[in-house]
Amino acid sequence: MPQPLHYLKETPSQTAGPYVHIGLAPAAAGFDIYRRELGTQIVADDTPGPRVRITGRVIDGMGAPVKDVLIEIWQADANGIYPHPGDPRHADAAPGFRGFARVIPDFDSGDFTIDTIKPGPVPMKGGAVAAPHLNLWLVARGINLGLSTRLYFGDEDNAADPVLNLIEQADRRRTLIAERTADGLYRFDIRLQGDNETVFLDV
User: Fold this and answer.
1) In angstroms, rounded to a whole number, what is the distance separating the alpha carbons of residues 31 and 105?
2) How far is CA 48 from CA 76, 77, 122, 136, 162, in A?
3) Per-residue model confidence (pLDDT) at position 1
4) What pTM does this model have?
5) 73 and 134 in contact (C-beta within 8 Å)?
6) Which residues of the chain have pLDDT under 50?
7) Nearest CA among 159, 151, 133, 153 for reference residue 77
8) DSSP string, the chain
9) What is the pLDDT of residue 131?
10) Tell me, what's the pLDDT at 16?
């Protein structure tokens, strides 16, 4: 006889399914249903800070681009302030700065583009300082649980970043670094499996 459970069973995990864009980014899926869709613009036109453009692809274990992924971005402003009550300085965040966006790739090529400002270093508990970075969360068909990672900038000093230094294999830290290209953009490919697999964070 099975032992009775005195708690609710865990709900089975599910992949995002084919409707993730309809639910989270409907305009990209061809549904113009909101006057202003959430997450389409991370910064306002007059938000202060150095403008950056990041391009890349999410790549599966076979080397093919994942074209139906959705990437959520959270970041601090140019002074390292998050516009969220969890940051004690949030009232001083840059005017018009949202710090959140949803980005999807081109459905044909799999290329994504992030237009934002470069964030500043972020003070952490205990006196540590995080190097400028973007927090990324990915969801797509075939991913049971959303994947969290970070993007750091190759032209910044990342040596003391406490999260990067948690990665024991030093050579894997480079999977979180966006490198500046000859045309002034940053390139950041996210590899889900295989050689040079991106480091994902348990948060």
Assistant:
1) 17
2) 12, 8, 17, 22, 27
3) 65
4) 0.86
5) yes
6) none
7) 133
8) -PPPPSSPPPPPP----TTHHHHH-GGGGT----SS-TTS-SS-TT--S-EEEEEEEEE-TTS-B-TT-EEEEEE--TTS--SSTTSTTGGGSPTT---EEEE---TTT-EEEEEEEPPPPEE-GGG-EEPSEEEEEEE-TT-SS-EEEEEEETTS--TT-TTGGG-SSGGGGGGGEEEEPTTS-EE--EE-SSTTPPP-B--
9) 98
10) 66
| pLDDT score, position 102 | 92
Question: Which tens digit of pLDDT belongs to each residue from 129-150?
Answer: 999 999 999 998 777 789 999 9
Q: Are 203 and 148 in contact (CB under 8 A)?
A: yes
List of residues 6+ apart from 203 with CB closer than 8 A = 148
Among 150, 139, 145, smallest CA distance to 21 is for: 139
Query: Diameter of the chain by CA atoms?
Result: 68
Question: Which of 44, 65, 45, 43 minimizes the C-alpha distance to 55?
Answer: 65
Q: How far apart are the first and last CA of the chain?
A: 38
CA dihedral (12, 17, 20, 26) positive or negative? negative
Q: Write the pLDDT tens digit of every residue in 182-203.
A: 898 999 999 999 989 999 999 7
pLDDT at 56: 97
Distance of alpha carbon 132 from alpha carbon 81, whole angstroms: 11
